[in-house]
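Tokens for Mechanosensing system component YbdG. Go.
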Amino acid sequence: MREYLLLILSKLGIEATPMIILVLTLTMIILLSVVIHLFLHHVILKSMRKSEAKNHKFWRQLLIEHNLFDRLSFVLQGIIVHVVSSLWLTRDPEVLEFILTCAQLWILIYGLLSLFSMLDTLLSLSQRTKIASQLPLRGIFQSVKLIAAIFIAILIISILIGKSPALLLSGLGAMTAVLMLVFKDPILGLVAGIQLSANNMLKIGDWLEMPKYGADGAVLDIGLTTVKVRNWDNTVTTIPTYALISDSFKNWRSMSESGGRRIKRSIRIDATSVSFLSPEQQQSLQHSYLLEPYIESKAKEIEQYNHQHHIDLSLPINGRRLTNLGTLRAYIHAYLKAHPGIHQNMTLMVRQLEASSEGIPLEIYAFTNTVAWVEYEGIQSDIFDHIFSIIPQFGLRLHQTPTGSDMRAMVNNLA
């Protein structure tokens, strides 16, 4: 190049001083860079965008969307400038060193950005697959980005100070404690992400409940340092990733996969309303198609027992008898067995819990055949609406703490 410039200057009658040669060489390098930039960005990349807009191939669109080709073109420009400068500026070592340093820094920075674009593209592609979308890949990719950024930063510093990267790496040993403190959250998050993935503890879309952080909703994102949860009130809670390993949380995924959601609620019966069934009550309740089999079989069993043991039934405390509470329990069980919204292959029982000053708890323990929240609440409400309405048919009363109107009625009666 130098001989070519000398030949041109001699033909033009211009004295070829070293400064003029240097200026012309630098001008040629700049012009070459501009031409390459215009060719790559306004010809090659522009035509690629037009062709991909017609092809509609998802993975190619992602490459363009994440600017991978743009950043690779900048890397190529830096490489060309580096090579051309090494060939054309051999007699100007100081200028050559400056340009080569700038070109190397340019290549490293845009090389790092190209790696980021490639990782973002892979992450977007993985989210299109069913299996990979459930893995905490975002945290892993963020870890790779962090490691790559640290490595490039070390190379940049070594270039600027003119020392070997190995010297800087050896000096990092004394900075381990400081680095551990600075990058504590990313390191803990990386380890937590690996444990969450390896043990299948949490996936995107799972229903997570963590009262300590006020989280109760669906997992939106599992990152390197944070996990985002969209609560049912549409607020978003951010939880440190490592907190999912150090603290306990509830994952409702198994419930969703099982196909049944649990109902576990009690009704409290006034203990003073519990009694034996009279013959009239027994005959009346026997007209219920749900209770008829139970009353017939139970009445025969009790009659046979009392007859075999020659029990005197003139006293209520003698022998066995049907009770209104036991009959209500049998009715609710039969009602749940016949209910179309109850999962019949899961645990189903109606049990009596320990009585207290709040009455006798009668607990319904069953599972709906749907896990959808709205449908589940609808089934549960329908069941208890029915139970509350039929309790008086058994001669029972619900326990309820006296209200202001009860107290006023009591005062009026005394007056």
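Residues 192 and 246 are 9 Å apart (CA to CA).
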